[in-house]
Amino acid sequence: MPSNPFHKLVRARLPQAAVGIESNSASVVQLDRARGGWAVRRAASINLPAELVKPSFDQTNISDQNELARTLRDLVTSAGLLRQRKFSASLPEASTRSAIVTIEGTAASRRETEELFEWKVERSFGAPLSELRVSREPMAPDAQRQARYLVNAIRQDVLAEYESLFHALRWHAGLILPRHAGEEQWLRNGTRGDGLLFTAHEEGFTAVLMRGDRPLAVRSVICEPAECDDELHRILLFYRDRAGAQVESAVDRLLVIGEHLDKRRVADIAQEALGVSLKPLNAADVGLLVPTDSLNFDAIAAPAGLARLAW
């Protein structure tokens, strides 16, 4: 188990099973490699009692550890995974923060680079680095050849709640990431085109722009449901400005997750803003074979995306 469970170790042996926790539900998935993609071997979802999980970046998330542990034990039992001990885990979007950190110029030493990185992280997330657990993934340099990193952050005390929960269940969670980090895996399919992910949650939505197999931009938007259309339009105009004249040929994938966003409406807004017709992807489109109609792709997309990292 990595010493930092919020950090993905390169070439680590990751489990083929993952759990996803949301404010009102939890899901568990175990995958097998299948011809041309992945197949759900075992999976289940369960509704959570109201107020049991209250996702927050800086406040208590779990109101009753024992009740949530019992509920998750029931979940894995129903999926036939009671004996499974190794899981990856996706956490609610509102429990974490993500940002792209750019390091301008050339520092005189590695220490100065790290100091600048720490300062940027603290400004991005509004908390001292000592109170955060962060992971960073190198990204392609920007147009000025400046170093860029995709940074995920969670407060130490919030992470400790989830770690305590997993410990009570005797689970070894070697990889813990925000929900969108699991979902974006379905856009990392080897294509050279651009992909757009919009994942909705109770506070708003997270937008991820993928270029090839790497994130190019990540935006977390807090808004009321009535404001979503305008915010989506702004995000897509930002993408259009980034892509320039090649926007119609560049973007070829649209993934919309979550009941708070209407997939067809998002596609219509993309048509208006980008002038390109996109069909929101489903499980079959991303290479995931789901054996029953009773499993909702939106509910399992994040944990299943983490489970596919086993290969």
What's the arrangement of secondary structure elements?
Layout (H helix, E strand, L loop, with lengths): L16 E5 L3 E10 L2 E11 L17 H14 L7 E6 L5 E7 L6 H16 L6 E8 L7 E9 H13 L3 E7 H5 L10 E8 L2 E8 L2 E9 L5 H16 L3 H4 E7 L5 H12 L13 E2 L7 H11 L4
Parallel strand pairs: 1-4, 3-13, 4-8, 9-12
Antiparallel strand pairs: 1-2, 2-3, 5-7, 6-7, 9-10, 10-11
Outline the structure in words.
- The protein is an alpha/beta fold and 311 residues long.
- It folds into 3 domains: 17-94 and 155-183 and 288-310, Nucleotidyltransferase, domain 5 (2-Layer Sandwich), CATH 3.30.420.40; 95-154, Dna Ligase, domain 1 (2-Layer Sandwich); 192-281, 2-Layer Sandwich (Nucleotidyltransferase, domain 5).
- It has helices at residues 65-78, 110-125, 156-168, 179-183, 228-243, 247-250, 263-274, 297-307, and strands at residues 17-21, 25-34, 37-47, 86-91, 97-103, 132-139, 147-155, 172-178, 194-201, 204-211, 214-222, 251-257, 288-289.
- The strands form 3 sheets. The chain has a 6-stranded mixed beta sheet with strand order 8-4-1-2-3-13. A 4-stranded mixed beta sheet has the order 11-10-9-12, with helices on both faces.
- Helix 1 crosses helix 3 and helix 5 (228-243) crosses helix 7 (263-274).
- The chain is globular.
- Residues 1-11 have low confidence and may be disordered.
